[in-house]
Amino acid sequence: MDETMQLATYASALRYEDLPPEVVERAREIALHTWCVQLAGSTLPWSQAIWRHVRDQGGNPQCTIVALGSRTSAVNAALVNGSFGHSFEMDDSHAATGIKGGCAVVPAALAIAEQGPALGSALGPVSGRDFIVAIVAAYEVMTRIGLAVTPALMVKGHHPTGCCGPFGAAVAAGKLLGFDAVTMRHALSIAAAQSAGLLEAPAGGRGDLKRLFGGMAAANGLRAALLAREGLTGPATMLEGEHGFCHSYGDGTRLNALTAGLASVWQILHVHYKPYAQDGYIQPMTEAFDQILRRHSFMADDIAEVRVGCSAHAHDHIAGLIREPRDLTSAQFSINFSLALYFFKRGAGFQEYTQDSLDDAAIIALGRRIHSEIDDEVEAEWQRSKARGARVTVRLRSGAVHSAYVPMLRAMSPAEVDEKSRRLAAVVLDGAQCERLVDAVRHLDEMDDVAQIVPLLRATGTAASGRAT
User: Fold this and answer.
1) Span 459-463, mean pLDDT?
2) What CATH number should be reported for the domain holding residue 337?
3) Nearest Cα to 345, choosing from 329, 362, 365?
4) 406, 428, 446 — which closes off a domain?
């Protein structure tokens, strides 16, 4: 029963030479995607509120706020940048656990990289290879902790990113700070004590609180690593202990998941990117609906009813909880609104989820004819592989029935991820700087000092001053 130490030892020992090419590529991709999500997310009103709070606190100007270019303390920068990255349901997601890792891991790692030698670390400037290894180590540890508490964590009402993200942020920061196994174990222990986030936000159907969870995870994990660096210690069994994380947040029956496949199975390769700016369980529903709309032509008034089949887990998590969303957070977690939005807009992204859409009478009317239920085939696949599938059936007033089944959310190709990233970055970057950012991250492992990325993350056009939502 030394799983905490095993994970700490693995993270501290991982080297760039240990990483398969596809793992290196995924880490680069996660970094680019996260930074571009942050750039677009910086413009949103709740993001601006979080920034104003941090700005008013003052503090040592150690690290840069993405898009804005302002500087604040490392922990506060991680809070803001992580919140930007989790601000609009556009982040990456680990399929089996629902952890959105980029918003927690990348801001914490960049906060260390930006400070570089000022931290007194023997590493000096953080190279691109160092940065990639830190991301991979973070994901491998964080997702295994998530697997060890899935599905009990969500059944108990805890938010996966808020609760598991601090481990990823702590590992990424600790790796760049050169932690040995014991110090990394302390960082994990301290991170466990700062796990937070409840599914009542957004299930309650009101408020922007959920947008903060990524920033909380980034800041709490970074703080954990910095405290461990100063000599603060924690229990050696904080994950597996009787009163540790896996028993408190899970049910204690899946401790083997903490170390299963460590160093041979790469969980980072099971990370996917959201094609749509909505809850992860709704993504395959939109995908199935899109298939129907591409194959058949009909008007909204032709639709008698839409039935959406999902797993029991998805049904418990989101189905029917938010029928009449009143703000954008709840809209992105509403099955019926999201599919109705997609019907009329043929999109469900940053430009479609707006206040105008929320008030659109046609979207509201169609949404009232969309209902969800547990589908036996989708449920069986969830039980077998935790795949997030969905079946959508459209019944027309004419009597015609159209159906599509998506067993799991499609994986976006590298070209699609690049295009999504460019589209998001273009909210605040001009075309030339956007291309410089993409090119720099493509060659991240050739970079001597990752802090060189920071100037490319500053807005070039109209700065992040909010958008009309």
Assistant:
1) 68
2) 3.30.1330.120
3) 362
4) 406
